[in-house]
UniProtKB/TrEMBL annotation:
Biased amino acid composition, Low complexity: 287-307
SUPFAM superfamilies: P-loop containing nucleoside triphosphate hydrolases
GO molecular function terms noted in the UniProt entry: ATP binding; ATP hydrolysis activity
Organism the protein comes from: Vandammella animalimorsus
UniProt name for this protein: ABC transporter ATP-binding protein
Keyword field contains Acetylation: no
Keywords: ATP-binding, Cell membrane, Membrane, Nucleotide-binding, Transport
CDD domains xrefs: ABC_NikE_OppD_transporters (cd03257)
Length: 316
């Protein structure tokens, strides 16, 4: 998979992103298969030389086991955490070089859907206040226009306008995640970062939420950065996919390419761990796959782009 040339207007560009833990933990490091040295000791790199681009209207999936650095990457893309080096550009502007006021206004263009629909909604607030929060953060103060837009967004995600007067505990997990998606849509964002948006849901509900995201992508032209450990979820929504392992991108391509001809043993193990018809999901950690199989040197297409250059993709 190659990246679009920088002559095209990319919505999101991540260049040579690295992040290091700097503070040692207060407890001794314990061996934990699959965890990087940084995660076991609290020191060292958690992301190394991450580069990719995302054109408008396209979706990119980032897959890897827990501990691969995916959620840290999502927080940095959302400007919730600063990287040790590298840049994150949205519509050509470096998010980490903005003033707090510039960043507050820029957040209209990018929103996040979190993993846990139970903890991401304030249980003491009515749904109307939860869903309209992004508009209030942008300075909107007129209650009637905000409520009308909230009603529109709730109906767009398959709920009812009357649900605005309820509290989170009155909804199922799948409905709560729909509320979180409605909240993210309130500012008409260009990009939604979704960090494991279906992993906390029942299997029967996961497909419904993924179908909703796909419908919103087609309707509004929204780009998604989908963080997941589930390759099937990424295959459902995304045109392109990156495989992360211990803070590095080790392979990239379209979901079809990586499903049918994965090059790295780690990617092969991820695919093998997917549930098959009539079988349960394999429970052993992928890190315990023959470690004896060393990761191959990534091909040119899998190498991170050098700073200031595109990472070789065309037509995301």
């Amino acid at each position: 998979m190659s990246a679009p040339s920088t002559s095209r207007c990319n919505l999101l560009e991540v260049r040579d992103l690295s992040h290091h833990y700097r503070q040692p933990r207060r407890w001794p490091a314990l061996p934990w298969p699959g965890r990087s040295p940084a995660q076991q000791t609290g020191q060292g790199p958690v992301l190394e030389h991450i580069s990719f681009s995302l054109p408008p209207g396209h979706s990119l999936g980032i897959v890897g086991e827990s501990g691969a650095g995916k959620s840290t990457l999502a927080r940095i893309v959302m400007a919730l955490e600063r990287p040790s080096r590298g840049s994150v550009r949205l519509l050509g502007r470096d998010l980490h070089q903005m003033s707090p006021e510039q960043l507050r206004l820029a957040r209209a263009d990018f929103q996040m859907v979190f993993q846990d629909p139970y903890s991401s909604l304030n249980p003491r607030q009515r749904i109307e206040r939860i869903v309209t929060e992004p508009l209030r953060a942008l300075g909107e103060r007129e209650p009637l226009p905000m409520r009308r837009r909230a009603e529109q967004m709730l109906e767009q995600v398959g709920l009812h306008s009357r649900d605005l007067d309820k509290y989170p505990h009155e909804f199922s997990g799948g409905q709560r995640q729909r509320i979180a998606i409605a909240r993210a849509l309130m500012t008409r964002p260009r990009l939604i970062v979704a960090d494991e948006p279906v992993s906390a849901l029942d299997v029967s509900i996961q497909a419904q939420v993924l179908d909703l995201l796909l419908e919103l992508k087609k309707t509004y032209g929204i780009s998604f950065l989908l963080i997941s450990h589930d390759m099937a979820a990424i295959h459902h929504l995304c045109e392109d996919m990156l495989v992360m392992h211990q803070g590095r991108i080790i392979e990239r391509g379209s979901p079809a390419q990586l499903f049918h001809s994965p090059q790295q043993p780690y990617t092969q193990a991820l695919i093998a761990a997917m549930p098959q018809l009539g079988q349960g999901r394999r429970r052993e950690r992928l890190a315990q796959q023959p470690q004896q199989q060393q990761l191959q040197q990534p091909s040119a297409a899998a190498q991170p782009a050098a700073p200031g250059k595109d990472d070789g993709r065309e037509g995301h």
